[in-house]
Design brief:
13-stranded mixed β-sheet, 3% helix, mainly beta, 45 strands, single chain, globular
């Protein structure tokens, strides 16, 4: 069958490289995807760098906010003179949420502040160029992607982005630039709201400003990967109370690259290079710590001192290049190796962005929103398309779709996918296909409780990212699984496979993660309600590098972590809204003997540091000594 592929791009232009292929950084959508192009009717943004596009962009946000809709900016320079504000809603709890601002490409799409704008100069109060919501209520699925934010010239009181998102959301592939001489207040401000996160930030580059990134509050955790902070005037990244997880942080500065301030602050920093440059004043350490800090595999070329530790009871490390450093004493129940598990970390595989001529969806085969479209989805899969897409809206699946052939990306365009198949059967069964990696992204998933998104019956690699409400599992012995910026309402069971997690939020009563003889690496884990956070059994290996356990709900009968003749290292913070935190933090079984680590220390044991209404678990190791 010949598929009626759409050949027009939503931007109205086709960008061709010398090779004749769409450039890798370009993201364009079919016209019927439900994406809102701000250069089209009724908004008519110019994007020419001369006309003021503030009103057009703000109107698009107002009319399509809180609706899981992509506000799309084709390549161009969009001049603004006032903040772009996420829209209000029916009430405080249901506003400033589910809004996505996306450019066609990071290098080609720029939101630029008009030079010498009266709202951002002189002695005026600092103002953001983009603001995504206040601190009251929950703000899920807010996102900014694929664009550059530029403060223009002569706007010293500017904040690039005030960003707020909860549960699942974040920023990808965004540059934030302080124009002119680099003067500005902060590039990315996460500290203006108390209850920010969990959220995921990847591919962020910030140049100039007093602060590259500011974060505070005490919950709910934020994960950063591939972050560049250059030429800040006070500090690159200041954490004033959050639980922060950083991997691949880089940049060049004459000021500290990272400050971790306050007893409630807890920061993980791994696999990073922080470069110092000469300063007219006394150069401070690359990392200043006054809270909880875990550092691993970090180098500091150009700095005279790597880490200055002013917390806990450990002296600052002498070496400028750190293999592993912990600000507080580690905890163990049995004799154990005292450093981290150091599981191998694989980068999340990239799947090429296909041109719209290689996309197909259920609506092209008679499928309609709101009714079962399983047959139409299967026909779209069988058509030979490389990208299966669900246009923005609500789509229902009641029977299992077999994913095979050419398909390598399943994208929701922020669509709602309702899974109503029989409990115990997956929505998608992933078989062998042409592509080694299959990617699911930008889906907001609902439906029956226990309705799984996928079943993997091949050795292919599976990536799930930027998805909410996922209830998934994977058959034993399947290929690698990557979860990135995902929220879940059910448990995850891993058996005999490798799993790599970057920011996972699980809101579920019961065991959140069961690792049976699998290798599970996690950076950024936020959980809610009772039940064990992770159970590692059958020779499994688990490493959790940073997280927040929100021990909401009633009495906690299960331990936070359970390890049975397996290996595990983890560190995280606990907060309890209900005033009923976990009593047992770790139960470990080794050789038939059981020991427990309690939140209130027993005789002869070290106390856990207190954090708000819970504890800080600086580092726990369950690693039998050789």
């Amino acid at each position: 069958m010949t598929v009626p592929f759409l050949v027009r791009f939503i931007s109205g232009i086709l960008l061709i490289s010398v090779s004749g292929l769409v450039r890798a950084e370009e993201e364009v959508f079919p016209n019927d995807s439900g994406v809102i192009d701000v250069t089209k009717s009724p908004y008519w943004a110019k994007g020419n760098g001369k006309s003021d596009d503030t009103a057009a962009l703000q109107q698009a946000l107002l009319e399509h906010g809180n609706s899981n809709t992509i506000i799309f900016l084709p390549n161009g320079t969009y001049l603004i003179s006032a903040p772009l504000l996420w829209p209000s809603g029916a009430d405080q709890m249901f506003q400033q949420r589910n809004t996505i601002l996306q450019g066609q490409s990071r290098d080609g799409t720029q939101i630029r502040l008009a030079d010498y704008s009266p709202n951002y100069s002189g002695s005026s109060k600092p103002r953001p160029m983009i603001w995504t919501g206040d601190s009251e209520g929950i703000r899920p699925r807010n996102s900014i992607r694929n664009l550059t934010v530029h403060t223009g010239i002569g706007n010293p009181r500017t904040i690039g982005v005030c960003f707020h998102s909860n549960s699942q959301g974040g920023m990808r592939d965004v540059d934030i630039i302080a124009g002119g001489d680099g003067v500005g207040v902060s590039g990315l401000d996460l500290a203006f709201t108390e209850h920010n996160g969990p959220a995921f930030f990847s591919g962020i580059r910030i140049s100039g400003f007093d602060f590259g990134v500011k974060s505070s509050g005490t919950r709910y955790g934020q994960t950063f990967e591939n972050i560049q902070l250059n030429h800040q005037r006070i500090v690159g990244f200041r954490n004033g109370g959050q639980v922060i997880h950083l991997r691949h942080l880089s940049g060049t500065n004459s000021v500290p690259a990272l400050e971790n301030n306050g007893a409630f602050s807890y920061t993980t920093l791994i696999d990073s290079t922080l470069t110092g440059r000469p300063s007219k004043r006394r150069q401070e350490a690359a990392v200043l710590n006054r809270g909880g800090l875990f550092v691993r595999a970090v180098t500091f070329p150009g700095y005279t001192n790597g880490v200055e530790n002013r917390a806990g009871n450990k002296l600052s490390p002498e070496s400028r290049d750190i293999v592993e450093f912990l600000s507080h004493n580690p905890f163990a129940l049995f004799p154990s190796v005292t450093n981290s598990l150091k599981l191998p970390i694989l980068e999340t595989p990239l799947v090429p962005w296909d041109p719209p001529t290689a996309w197909s969806g259920p609506h092209l085969f008679g499928g309609k929103p709101g009714v079962d479209c399983s047959e139409a989805v299967q026909r779209a899969v069988n058509s030979g398309a490389q990208t299966l897409y669900f246009p923005n809206g609500t789509w229902t699946i009641e029977r299992t779709i077999t994913l095979r052939g050419e398909v390598r990306r399943v994208i929701g365009c922020e669509a709602r996918l309702v899974l109503n198949q029989s409990v115990g059967t997956p929505a998608f069964r992933i078989e062998d296909g042409k592509a080694e990696t299959v990617l699911f992204e930008r889906l907001d998933i609902g439906g029956k409780k226990g309705a799984a998104l996928f079943e993997m019956i091949s050795q292919r690699t599976l990536v799930i990212r930027d998805c909410a409400g996922v209830q998934g599992g994977s058959r034993p012995g399947s290929g690698d699984l990557f979860l990135e910026n995902v929220s879940s309402l059910g448990p995850w069971v891993f058996e005999r496979q490798r799993v790599f997690v970057r920011q996972l939020h699980i809101d579920f009563e019961g065991t959140k993660i069961l690792n049976t003889n699998a290798t599970v690496w996690v950076m950024g884990l936020t959980t809610e309600k009772g039940g064990s956070v992770v159970r590692t059994v059958g020779g499994g290996r688990t490493e959790v590098l940073g997280g927040v356990c929100l021990s909401t709900g009633g009495w906690k009968r299960d331990p936070m972590f359970f390890v049975d003749d397996s290996e595990a290292t983890f560190h995280l913070a606990e907060d309890s809204f209900s005033g009923q935190p976990f009593q047992t933090i770790v139960t470990e079984v080794r050789g038939g003997k059981t020991l427990r680590l309690y939140s209130i220390p027993t005789k002869g044991t070290l106390p856990l540091p207190e954090r708000l209404s819970g504890i800080l678990l600086p580092f726990f190791t369950a690693r039998p000594q050789p």
